[in-house]
Amino acid sequence: MMGLLFVDKPAGISSHDVVSMVRRAARTRRVGHAGTLDPFATGLLVIAVGGCTRLLPYIDGEPKVYEARVRFGFETNTDDATGTESRRAPLPTSDTIASAIATLTGAMLQTPPSFSAKQIDGQRAYAVARRGGALALKPVPVHVHQWTVLTQTPELIDVRITCAGGTYVRALARDLGRASNSAAHCATLRRISSGSAHVAHAVTVDALRAGAIVDGDVPLRSPLESLHDVAVQQLDADEQRQLTFGRTIPATVDGTRAALVCGTHVLAIAERVIDANARAVWQPRVVIGSVTS
After folding, report:
1. What CATH number corresponds to the domain at position 134?
2. Alpha-carbon span 33 to 131, nearest angstrom
3. Are both 186 and 209 inside the same structural domain?
4. Per-position pLDDT tens, the chain of length 293
5. In terms of CB atoms within 10 Å, which of 58, 229, 247, 280 comes out highest?
6. Is residue 293, in this structure, part of any structural domain at all?
7. What is the mean pLDDT of the chain?
8. Are the C-beta atoms of residues 190 and 173 closer than 8 Å to each other?
């Protein structure tokens, strides 16, 4: 059993909780994810099952698209609605919000939330924050491609944010408040898409609880649709056998990296090299298996 599963995570459970549900539904320990969501957030989790876990480094997760509600008037210690109020300020004007959004678009440095998984000297920031301490979190480079305002009132704004991985939307909400001469936090957060994966194609956790993946009640998806920047080359039965021995495969398609497949079943990820006979061949880097008998 191998494939991807898109799950629509509800609020109140962790990404690890979802992984545990998938393990039970698929009856395998070989389950991993392509990026977590905070417990308060909802939306898309990309889960790999079986041998597909070895393909996670090649899964296309860019860009990320989120829908968030930013509430103005006060900050929280977690930068979201689960925290306690830490600073209050007057509400901003529409003009200052628009100007602030412009400054928070493009490449920038962002200071992660105090309650985050960032690690310094072997300590997680959230663990230190829960004990009442604080780590000196350094700003890190992030990239916000676009903000789209969906609705707006004096107290809140609903936005769709397209950004690169590693961007904390909670921190964007906090910084939006500060840049508009106010204070703000992220009231709700939902991930809509990650690369080509979209929450519209996700299953619910209720579906995971109700049906076993092995029985076909929750179908797995081919990783082909989510692999980043790879060519695709079909292999015949003999080439599949050669692959199981780690041997090179003649390259018949262009590209520097390829998914070697049988139908929609990914057998390996390989890189293009020139062999001793000056032929272009695929050198396997990650071999998942074979579908030949």
Report:
1. 3.30.2350.10
2. 29
3. no
4. 789 999 999 999 999 999 999 999 898 999 999 988 999 999 999 999 999 999 999 999 999 999 999 999 999 999 999 999 999 999 999 999 999 999 999 999 999 887 666 666 566 655 555 656 666 678 999 999 999 999 999 999 999 999 999 999 999 999 999 999 999 999 999 999 999 999 999 999 998 888 777 666 778 899 998 998 899 999 999 999 999 888 999 999 999 999 999 998 899 999 999 999 999 999 999 998 766 44
5. 58
6. no
7. 91
8. no
Decide if 270 contacts 257 (C-beta within 8 A): yes
Q: In terms of residue numbers, what domain contains 53?
A: 2-58+199-224
Name the token pair of 133. 């301490």
Does 206 participate in catalysis according to the annotation? no
Q: Are residues 10 and 91 in the same domain?
A: no
Give just the sign of the alpha carbon dihedral 37, 40, 44, 48: positive
Residues 6+ apart with CB under 8 A from 16: 36
Per the DSSP assignment, residues forming a β-bridge with 165 are: none
Q: How many residues does the chain have?
A: 293
How does DSSP classify residue 89?
A: -
Q: Of all residues in the chain, what percent are helix, strand and coil, respectively (each to 5)?
A: 25, 40, 35
| Residue bearing tokens 């041998």 | 51
Number of domains into which the chain is organized: 3
Flag whether 29 is in a domain: yes
- For residues 94 and 190, state if they share a domain: yes
Q: How many CB atoms lie within 10 A of CB 155?
A: 13
Amino acid at 185: H
Strands annotated E in 77-165: 85-88, 106-110, 119-120, 123-124, 140-152, 156-163
